[in-house]
Amino acid sequence: MRTTSNPAFRNLPTGGQQAGYGQQYGAPQFGGYQGAPPVQGERPITIDDVVTKTATTLAVTMVTGFISAYLVLTGAAQWYALAAPGCIVGLIISLVIIFKRTPSAPLVLAYAAFEGLFLGGVTGFFEGMFPGIAWQAILGTFGVFVAMLVVYKTGAIRVTPRLTKWIIGATAGAAILILANLVLSWFGVNSGLRDGSTLAIVFSLVVIGIAAFNFLLDFEAANEMIRSGVPSKWAWWAAFGLMTTLVWLYLEILRLLSYLQRD
Question: Residue ranges of the domains in the chain?
Answer without folding.
Answer: 45-260
